[in-house]
Amino acid sequence: MTTSAGLSGPRRGRVPRASYRCSECGWETAKWVGRCGECQAWGSVAETAAVPTGRASAGPVSAPAVPIGQVSVEESTFRPSGVPELDRVLGGGLVPGAALLMAGEPGVGKSTLLLEVAAQTARAGRRVLYVTGEESASQVRLRADRTDGVHDELYLAAETDLGAVLTHIEQTRPALLVLDSVQTVSAPGVDGVPGGVTQVKEVAAALVRVAKTRGITTVLVGHVTKDGTIAGPRVLEHLVDVVLHFEGERTSRFRMLRAMKNRYGPVDEVGCFDLGPDGITAVTDPSGLFVEHQLRQVPGTCVAVSMEGRRPVLAEVQALVTVSPAERPRRTTSGLDSSRVAMILAVLQQHCRIRTHQCDVFASTVGGARVHEPASDLAVAVALASSHLGTAPPGGVVAIGELGLAGELRTVRDLPLRIAEAARQGFRVALVPGGTERRPRRPEERRVDGMRVVEVPDLESCLRLLHLVAPERRDPPRGPRPLD
């Protein structure tokens, strides 16, 4: 009986196999393909070096493990950045040794905001190193002159080589490092072009390692793709401690900063800024930017109260419903979720007899605000019904509530905060959903913060109070008196 020679001898080590990786998104495959299976890019898949696998063994440690109660937290305390809205989003300020990633569309104001943060940190007596890879040093100096950001403790360097950036860090020893942007810096000895997956990973890993070992707060600026996600490998978001998104409409000066990841604070906070010719300033009260007609009676308008993080913001919703000459009526939205507007139109037609299937519908917000929260459904419905009937709702009214497919109103979170903000802005009446434990069959009224708060069970009851029902359904309502 013959046996195989391979079975009788000692077991041989496993030979490492080569893999292929996309230089655009990092997708890996076992064989070469001409088109990436993830990002659909042509000619971006290349062979990577095979790494032999082996068993890991115990090695030296950097510091012995200690009980968690004996770990000092003094080195990780917040330091104010000088920009209150940024401190609000971060949870208190900048943390020494933290790595932050700020992403946003081109021209939204990322560099202007970070230059303001660098100037304020320098005025506080802490050294700052601002490294730019997209502009020259003279261009950044011109922006600093325009925004009054010139200071002796603010150092500026224009570099695109990782080794040169590390040398500047060694020489200046800053407390804050700003790199604009991480996609423009390349690491020597690493394959790939600047901005590729391998280069971005190596550059980010090296800067995060320096930030942790030297206690330097590091802010990296990142590019975004067409769909708004951060360009480069997903591991970039895992390497940093905080991920911030800076967003805003090009036609508006209003900008919003959101925290998508934060290891040191909340992730539901939002900072508001005003980008002007003299720089960027914090907006501590953004409600006034999105409300034009507070107490006047205008058909097709209603005010909603949405939550931006933990801050209530008032936004005016406008609607225009007109008879369409085309066979297929248009549905156009700006600042609102188009699918929710279509759902609200269906509920109005089914449960309130407001026929809009042959009308062009335009719905938008004032001032470039983005209202995608379900709590704004009631305000959108009131604006649509008001425009269709040509009747203006009473002045000084805010509408808060999520609309269900059966026409009922559902409760929303943080209702007391929304009512208090509306009362502070001078509104007199708030239409809110009924109670959660026992939904009332008819509208009920109470007084909160000096406002008349009316709890309504469904959309039809709300429109009756506002005199916004179809003529064939205008029977006398029961419950509180109608709103004048």
From TrEMBL:
Spans annotated as Lon-protease-like: 360-484
Ranges for domain RecA family profile come to 75-224
Recorded hits in InterPro entries, A to Z, give:
AAA+_ATPase (IPR003593), DNA_repair_RadA (IPR004504), P-loop_NTPase (IPR027417), RecA_ATP-bd (IPR020588), Ribosomal_Su5_D2-typ_SF (IPR020568), Ribsml_uS5_D2-typ_fold_subgr (IPR014721), Rubredoxin_2 (IPR041166)
Binding residues annotated for ATP, in chain numbering? 104-111
Keywords assigned by UniProt?
Answer: ATP-binding, DNA damage, DNA repair, DNA-binding, Hydrolase, Metal-binding, Nucleotide-binding, Stress response, Zinc, Zinc-finger
Checking SMART domains in the record gives: AAA
Q: Which molecular function term from Gene Ontology is one that the record holds? A: ATP-dependent DNA damage sensor activity
**Motif RadA KNRFG motif located where?**
261-265
Question: Which SUPFAM superfamilies does the record associate with it?
Answer: P-loop containing nucleoside triphosphate hydrolases, Ribosomal protein S5 domain 2-like
Source organism's superkingdom? Bacteria
Entry domain remark: The middle region has homology to RecA with ATPase motifs including the RadA KNRFG motif, while the C-terminus is homologous to Lon protease.
Family as reported in the entry's similarity comment: Belongs to the RecA family. RadA subfamily.
Q: What is this protein's name? A: DNA repair protein RadA
Q: Which organism is it from?
A: Nocardioides perillae
